[in-house]
Give the backbone structure.
Amino acid sequence: MENVFIMDHPLIQHKISMLRNKNTGTNEFRKLIEEIAVLMGYEALRDLPLEDVEIETPIETCMSPMITGEKLAIVPVLRAGLGMVNGITTLVPFAKIGHIGLYRDPETHEPHEYFCKLPDRIEQRQIIVTDPMLATGGSAVDAVRMIKQHGGKKIKCMFVIAAPEGLERLHREHPDVQIYVGHLDRELNDHAYICPGLGDAGDRIFGTF
């Protein structure tokens, strides 16, 4: 699918396998999510625009490339998406951070909005939406829709794991959005959980079981 990128880097795959282990504790799980976000961010941000600026080195003055244009915006989907923010800001510490709050109805599995706060001039920014898991795709579809309603245009989404059903839905409803996935899992089960998955990412990041 166009605009869909499935990561195949060995480090990403190794760290995702560690995430899946039910015996991986909260502190290690949190660190792994951040490390995976760094590795995925490196790939997702490879098309940032550059311009040559004048730099004075200890030897001489030269023209050297630096990131240009409006600053980035990282928009985690609360709450699990927060776990990926520090990884991205390791690469781009100047990025602004917004927040989108959605929760999934336990019966219908459909998302419900409860919070949306985005940086100013969002229409001029490159936006990175973060969420460790893409299951049914409902939350991601709604998050992107909310950003577009506020004027956002240049949007990328990053997920550590995804189910085929959710990936297909997000791509179908927002074909202009670039989607980065650490690993494409097998399927959703009858309870809309990703299989083999890694459990509830939010609970495992924040230690709330």
Observations:
- Residues 162 and 193 are 10 Å apart (CA to CA).
- The chain has a mean pLDDT of 93.
- The first helix runs from residue 10 to 20.
